[in-house]
Amino acid sequence: MASTSETGHAKNVANFQDLIEFVTGYGATYNPSKNSLKLPQLIALKASAETNLADVISKNTNYNNKVNERISAFNGLKSYSTRLINALQTTDATPETIGNAKTFNRKMQGKKASASQTQTDPNAPAPATISSSQQSYDQLIQHLAGLNSVLENEASYSPNETDLQVATIQAKINDLTAKNTAVASAYTSISNSRIARNETLYSSTTGLVETANEVKKYIKSVFGASSPQFAQVKGIEFKKPKI
Predict the structure, then answer these.
(1) Which tens digit of pLDDT belongs to each residue from 160-217?
(2) What is the model's pLDDT at position 121?
(3) Could you give the maximum distance between any two Cα atoms of the chain, in Å?
(4) Alpha-carbon torsion 171, 176, 181, 186, what sign?
């Protein structure tokens, strides 16, 4: 479900269309001197706002997809790490080498990615700020890389199981890194998209909300505060949400 603020952005744009319809109906009587209040500019502003809203939705969907892909990739990582330790213990590795490997495994078992970065609802909005769990995922990757370093330097570690082999572990590290980076990149994209949307809708000088309020003031000045024309538009709400 879309958040209240996301719904509010769309409502402002929908209400702006209502305002445009009334302005269109006034015909030649609606003739402001300020260029940004002229009908063609209002129509263009509304089109830009719609484009921005659509872009935020697209970027938000992409962000959640990348988060879910990361969740899937990291799923079972801790048990996988333990399997690697078990495999190492069946070799000729020294107690010191096994101890080094277990140190990385302990770190792996103790690190938990924050739930605030776990998106499972494909319609859920991306967070306004990226949480510390991003670092947690980075650290999980580092723990696995550290463990793999121990294994690849142990001559007797040569399991027959493909998924336990050093090359496979390295491929997994590369995949985890790519998926973690993809989340960060997608977050940057949705954040920039929101900035662009907010500029279009809420700029104090050229934003849709400010423009709508100026249009209403112009209509009031032309037709009068008690006119039926002003009565048509004065109740159309335009709000600036907390962003």
Answers:
(1) 999 999 999 999 999 999 999 999 999 999 999 999 999 999 999 999 999 999 999 9
(2) 59
(3) 93
(4) positive
Q: What whole-number distance in Å separates Cα of residue 211 and Cα of residue 43?
A: 12
Is residue 109 scored above 70 in pLDDT?
A: yes
DSSP 205: T
The pLDDT, as a whole number, for residue 1 is 39
- Give 197's Cβ-side CA count (13 Å radius): 27
Which residue type is seen at 117?
Q
3-class DSSP state of 68 = helix
pLDDT of amino acid 110:
86
Q: Give dist(CA 233, CA 236) in Å, integer.
A: 5
Q: Report yes or no on whether pTM surpasses 0.85.
A: no
AA identity, residue 16: F
The token pair that represents 39 in the structure block = 């009908």
Q: Is 111:143 a contact under the CB 8 Å cutoff? A: yes
Q: Are 92 and 35 in contact (CB under 8 A)?
A: no
Residue 195 CB partners (closer than 8 Å, separation 6+)? none
Cα of first residue to Cα of last residue in the chain, in angstroms, is: 18
Question: Which parts of the chain fold into alpha helices (H)?
Answer: 4-25, 39-74, 77-88, 95-110, 133-152, 166-202, 208-223, 228-234
